Amino acid sequence: MAGKVDLSVCGRVCLLGEHSDWAGGYRRTHAKILPGRCIVTGTDQTLEATAWEHPNKLILTTTRDNGEVVGPWECDFRDEELLRVAKGGGFWSYAAGVAYQVKTYYPVNGLVVENHTTTLPMKKGLSSSAAYCVLIARAFSKVYDLRMPPRAEMEMAYLGEILTPSRCGRMDQCCAFGRVPTLMFFDGDLLQTEKIDPPKEPIFLVIVDLCAAKDTMEILSCLNKAYPVASNEIEEGVQKLLGEVNEKIVKEAAEVISQGDAKRLGELMTYAQEQFDKFAIPACPSQLTAPKLHATLTHPSIQPLVWGGKGVGSQGDGCAQFVARSEEAQGEV
């Protein structure tokens, strides 16, 4: 046993290819659906925690991004109790789901996790829930010397989160890789990852908190109605967006990132947003019309400073991302 261990997990931002992870997952039963692909990277914002062993309980304390401390919360470290909490939903369900999965595959006892510092915003498209799931998986790994590589942490985090009412795809847990640009492929249950070569020239990104709200579960529920078989023109459009349209954009984007071509990356982001609006808004207008997002993306004062931009994560009024024209412009935005 390792005694007390310190942990840090960053958030993730999906540069391009949002929603294609779960869409590609439908290939397990419907091979005509195209594989998903996306480009992700870690953020500067993190969850920081200390963890140690407990003989028979899961005990958690968390600090929200506004400084509010929640907990301690605890439950017995028994299969039926962990599964009950996970399926019941709510904030602690994520940790309970991950704990259940780790307990299933590894010889572990209970765990105490104190998440004492959080700079990662919640419900802003930066995968705060997935980061928390990875944090719990990593805590078990470090405390019990399980030596999980990042892919194993990702798997435990994903399997834990899908025990909850959340219906995430496999993209979000890439925060386990840290701040590394990564190309991800989703083909049914097969997940493949490929590191993107560092840009030859720096690319300056800006993430903007829109200080609004969105309902990710509602967005996922609406878009999932298009799968596995589209029943109308709107649903056909969603499949086209997350299939052939997305594939073309992400392929080119991976190349321009390694080349350090910020201008072209910004143009691709703007084009991706246009396509997303065209095909996805009709499927979920209540969340994806996103007036604050679109007002921010098109604000006249920003245009001279950026090459382009788009929504973040599941989209909606959570965050926006821009490719700045220079380091100085990044600071001005």
Automatic annotation (TrEMBL):
Q: Which domain of life is it from?
A: Eukaryota
Single annotated GO MF: galactokinase activity
Q: Does the keyword DNA-binding apply?
A: no
Any idea which UniProt keywords this protein has? ATP-binding, Nucleotide-binding
Residue ranges constituting the GHMP kinase N-terminal domain according to the UniProt record = 95-177
Q: Which Gene3D superfamilies match?
A: 3.30.230.10, GHMP kinase, C-terminal domain (3.30.70.890)
What biological process terms from GO does the record include?
Answer: galactose metabolic process
GO cellular component annotations of the record? cytosol
Q: Is Ribosomal protein included in the keywords of this UniProt record?
A: no
Which PANTHER family does this entry report, sorted A to Z?
Answer: GALACTOKINASE-RELATED (PTHR10457:SF7), MEVALONATE KINASE/GALACTOKINASE (PTHR10457)
Similarity comment: family membership:
Belongs to the GHMP kinase family. GalK subfamily.
The entry's protein name is GHMP kinase N-terminal domain-containing protein
